Amino acid sequence: MTVTIRSLEVAVPGTELTQEELRDVFLAQDDLSRLGSRLVSTSFDSSGIERRYSAVDEWDAAPTDEEPLFFDQASGQFLNPTTGARNRVYAREATELYIRSATEALAAAEGVEAADVTHVITVSCTGFFAPGPDYRIVRALDLKPSVQRYHLGFMGCYAAFPALRQAQTICRADPEAVVLVVSVELCTLHVRTSNDPDTIVGSSLFADGAAAAVVTGRDQPADTPLLQLDHFETVLTPVGEEAMAWNIGDNGFEMVLGTYVPHIIDEHIVEALAPLLARDPSLTGRSYRDIEQWAIHPGGRSILDKVEAKLGLDEQQLVPARETLRDYGNMSSATVMFVLKNILDRARPGTRERVCGMAFGPGLTVETGLMTTIGAPEAATAATAAGAPEAAGAPEASAGATSRP
After folding, report:
1. Is residue 389 over pLDDT 80?
2. Which listed residue (125, 157, 187, 356) is catalytic?
3. Which of 130, 153, 293, 346 is 20 to 30 A (C-alpha) from 393?
4. Can you list the domains of the chain with their CATH numbers?
């Protein structure tokens, strides 16, 4: 049975920040040491990121009469709200992104209506509330109250793949199932000033974003590209448990992102890929470069550099990951969905290309997936182009609007 992603939409919150201005804000903090200043400059300037998006509108220069919670524009200093205060902002802002991205994905799924949705899977590691985002989506999209709901919480950057794997399992068990998978991460709610190297690296990378996908095994035609879900695997590396972690502190969630993570990935990526590639005999003995598309979670530029070099990939095969990192930063679990969106938007009419995906998270956990892009039928593509020539260009990411990597 073939299970496919019939639509994949992404969204970002309304505050856009350039990497340079963020770097300068961090450098201006009163408690930053001389060594901390050097680390900030190095981490931000070598990140491969040009801009990021945040649900915290206090970063904007527009004056406001409201009492600041995260950042005092007058002094240019970070504030240190409690975990509860941060989480209340998460509940408000994440709900909007969950609903917006889910609505966009459902609208883009040809032949699927709200009444068809049987399951909702939500993903996040940057906040909690109940009734949760799965409930909010059912209510806001007027889905059937009998929709089965699941939430994958606090798994970290790799969580989108377990969500897609669960959606695939559901659809294989029930050919009529329609699963809505939605990931929302508001990492910037937990940004803080510090002289700790791990915290500085995290602050230079993390951002906010959302992604939603409609997954089904229904056999029905489509005039848009699809992404076939083939196989998934999970591997724990023998080392790295202390190198990447995500803890709840009194003043927000605390990221541990050791500088040794890229080296761990470099040492163990081949072993991590082996179980996945063994699922498809046609890949036996072939070079990694023969797999056309690579959806690598861009945890940072150094991680992408290690993956490209270790696997001997062509630099073009990492373009979707590098463009996502450049334009959006690391949005935890939502990020690899942005990469898949980039790849799907490039799918050539009437063709199929294999996609190998990888995402990394606490443990150190490596989640992998084999997928196949199914390009739109050529006749349908030609008809669409003839009727709507202005649709040829993808819109730029805009504040408060659904974006396309």
Report:
1. no
2. 157
3. 293
4. 226-377 (3.40.47.10)
